[in-house]
Amino acid sequence: MTDPRLERLLATVPGLRLKTDPADLEHYGRDWTRRWTPAPLAIALPGSVEEVRGIVHWANQAGVAIVPSGGRTGLSGGAVAAQGELVLSLERMNRVLDFNAVDRTLTVQAGTPLQVAQEAAASHGLAYPVDFASRGSATVGGSIATNAGGIRVVRYGNTREWVAGLTVVTGAGDVLELNRGLVKNSSGYDLRHLFVGSEGTLGVVVEATLRLSDPPPPTNVMLLALPSFEVLMQVFAAFRERLQLEAFEFFTDVALRHVLAHGAQAPFAETHPYYVVAEFATGDERAETAALAAFEYCLEHGLVLDGVISQSDAQAAQLWRLREGITEALARYKPYKNDISVRVSTMPAFLAETQALLAQQYPQFEVVWFGHIGDGNLHINVLKPDTMENDAFVAQCEQVTTLLAGALERHGGSISAEHGIGLVKKPYLSGTRSDAEIAIMKGIKRVLDPNGAMNPGKLFDA
Amino acid sequence: MTDPRLERLLATVPGLRLKTDPADLEHYGRDWTRRWTPAPLAIALPGSVEEVRGIVHWANQAGVAIVPSGGRTGLSGGAVAAQGELVLSLERMNRVLDFNAVDRTLTVQAGTPLQVAQEAAASHGLAYPVDFASRGSATVGGSIATNAGGIRVVRYGNTREWVAGLTVVTGAGDVLELNRGLVKNSSGYDLRHLFVGSEGTLGVVVEATLRLSDPPPPTNVMLLALPSFEVLMQVFAAFRERLQLEAFEFFTDVALRHVLAHGAQAPFAETHPYYVVAEFATGDERAETAALAAFEYCLEHGLVLDGVISQSDAQAAQLWRLREGITEALARYKPYKNDISVRVSTMPAFLAETQALLAQQYPQFEVVWFGHIGDGNLHINVLKPDTMENDAFVAQCEQVTTLLAGALERHGGSISAEHGIGLVKKPYLSGTRSDAEIAIMKGIKRVLDPNGAMNPGKLFDA
């Protein structure tokens, strides 16, 4: 603690909790990406909005950059501090502040883990329906910064849809209370939506008022085996028309093979090119009948090659494990991840084109596809061959991403569906957003963060 | 057509349709507000995005301001051209461009009337669920510019929720294709949401891709008589818990008196302080039973003083007329309208405080309250006494609005729920948005509209 800048920080924000141990610098300086060496100046752990504001004022004066930090479960390097930045961790600001039964809202500090918010909602008989696998570590603030999606988007939409109000500290040190929980508010530009998905580049989200939903209905789970992606889309259409879908996830035979190798139980005697895990609301006899009818329709029309409907919660969990276990099963191959989206209707053409391109140009790579059909969101994991060095692998994968970015541009897609741009996807942003859009984004950043104090180098180079 | 600026416009955009007849200038220069004398330079009626772009380039060079113009049904003066502006009417850009069954989207030119978009969706077995009374004249572009709400917000949300993609021409003349129909897209700031509700101050919305919903379920309508607003809120809670509400609208005895004087039929033998029109999904026996049970629960607990459930579509329409007929019944009093919102839970306290303030300070005015309970949206109509001159009335009403703005500030509300700020609410914006927020909005406008060509003087003075 001999750095004069930190002395000044403590003079500006008396009593601020700071960490400078090398182990802490390493722990707080990275997210779930592992491509950058953490090198933050220090870790600040403010306990109040006022302290956050003091830190931002100091950063502007001292010329130190701030990396806002939630659960650091991000996959795009948005929370990496590798350039001497101050990490501003929200972990001590993790309290549920308010529940309002009439408004059906929950107000939390930004460092509240997603799962804690979900449990708080459930304790009042309601639900916070944004959900994804890192729920125990990911924070509400971080999920807002990336407009996180997850497995329930087909039914509930993205994080954006559930933010009724935000308190933020801008890069200029202004505290803004945005929308304040109103349902209807046509009083000028909606800055709340500007902060959702801004990846910490405009300011720090310090509190959020979340909309809550009715508790989820009772559901059932189906696993389906399908002959092709085109047929998979037909099955999606048939199911969407007849059922209330809570999730509709697909994966390939390659993905299943890895999950089975990792210890899961084979669902069918034979293997098939594509699989779908569909979760659908039941709750009454009509819904049950509709689900069976949809299933039988698909079997009779040869759309589904094999299938199973869960008969118990345990079996439902077992079916889900085939989809949710993919990431863990692939981990040992240090997969290079892409998280892309196109319009739902464009998925078959995009998938066919890119699978052919990859097979032709990168036959040495095993590529695992899975994702969220209802959202047009495809996760593409390229597996590192055991014999290849990591640096060479990453370098080749970046060429794969360039190839993907080109296909996305042709098909009107996005290089990041739900992970954000961060550092990882920054080189490819211009395939998804036009030069004019990027120039406007940079202009907006200058308005809210005139000295470039907030998470510089993420999303774009200002 | 001797103005040299218009000659230059025609040289820049050959073949552009222009109108300069005094009758046209008057017709296109105003919206549904009647407080400003229209005085546009001319009316341009472009037929393509390229023509819109040409007009914007000309405006920047010629130093002429542009007022984007849809159906001009606005109530805040957002489309008024009283300062020699060029009105850019989208009325010729009124085609449905595309329907996509898989994406469930409809792409329309911005000048498409709301009702045409609704009918196009219905022709494909789907629905565009944003709906309000001026649907026949209001355009999709205009509804996006104000983030229009309406009577279905309690169920379907505001316009913002249904915009999957926007094509805009910015004030700098850039054509941006924002979000391009994607469900998931975390690739930087969501400029689409910046344009929704921007009231033409950042650019011109030229095309929109709208999300469509399942067709609305069969519904039934109830009219309820209630003893107080507090009880009304209890009834809302009881109904929301038990039924799928499609609308939950309230009005006062004063509103009903005017509607009855205008020719409607009295629903009950006695008069009561508050009334609710509730529309709820039926469709199956369980829903019917739940509706009856909710109604009986409220009767038994003395919450509802009287009530009727419609037995036919004709009766449902008759009940709705009591609510929807208010605006027309009041028209002869040249009412001064306020359209405000608070959080749903704050409505009783806000209403009690402002009703008391109004009765105390403006006893000479008859005030009619109605609105959307589920959205916290109250419409307040102050009626002009027959004996009062219009100018004096408006002057006094602006003091009423100042009083309302103060109450809204205390209760965390908004001076505009769904009409927008425009010219009418501009003096009161600072009660709803902080100085820092307004400064940021002005900064953002400068980024997208550097020469201040787009609808200057609306929303705020740049």
Automatic annotation (TrEMBL), chains A, B:
<dbReference type="InterPro" id="IPR004113">
    <property type="entry name" value="FAD-bd_oxidored_4_C"/>
</dbReference>
<dbReference type="InterPro" id="IPR016166">
    <property type="entry name" value="FAD-bd_PCMH"/>
</dbReference>
<keyword id="KW-0560">Oxidoreductase</keyword>
<dbReference type="InterPro" id="IPR036318">
    <property type="entry name" value="FAD-bd_PCMH-like_sf"/>
</dbReference>
<dbReference type="InterPro" id="IPR006094">
    <property type="entry name" value="Oxid_FAD_bind_N"/>
</dbReference>
<dbReference type="Pfam" id="PF02913">
    <property type="entry name" value="FAD-oxidase_C"/>
</dbReference>
<comment type="similarity">
    <text>Belongs to the FAD-binding oxidoreductase/transferase type 4 family.</text>
</comment>
<keyword id="KW-0285">Flavoprotein</keyword>
<dbReference type="InterPro" id="IPR016169">
    <property type="entry name" value="FAD-bd_PCMH_sub2"/>
</dbReference>
<dbReference type="InterPro" id="IPR051264">
    <property type="entry name" value="FAD-oxidored/transferase_4"/>
</dbReference>
<keyword id="KW-0274">FAD</keyword>
<dbReference type="GO" id="GO:0022904">
    <property type="term" value="P:respiratory electron transport chain"/>
</dbReference>
<feature type="domain" description="FAD-binding PCMH-type">
    <location>
        <begin position="36"/>
        <end position="215"/>
    </location>
</feature>
<dbReference type="GO" id="GO:0016491">
    <property type="term" value="F:oxidoreductase activity"/>
</dbReference>
<dbReference type="Pfam" id="PF01565">
    <property type="entry name" value="FAD_binding_4"/>
</dbReference>
<dbReference type="GO" id="GO:0071949">
    <property type="term" value="F:FAD binding"/>
</dbReference>
<dbReference type="InterPro" id="IPR016171">
    <property type="entry name" value="Vanillyl_alc_oxidase_C-sub2"/>
</dbReference>
<dbReference type="InterPro" id="IPR016164">
    <property type="entry name" value="FAD-linked_Oxase-like_C"/>
</dbReference>
<protein>
    <submittedName>
        <fullName>FAD/FMN-containing dehydrogenase</fullName>
    </submittedName>
</protein>
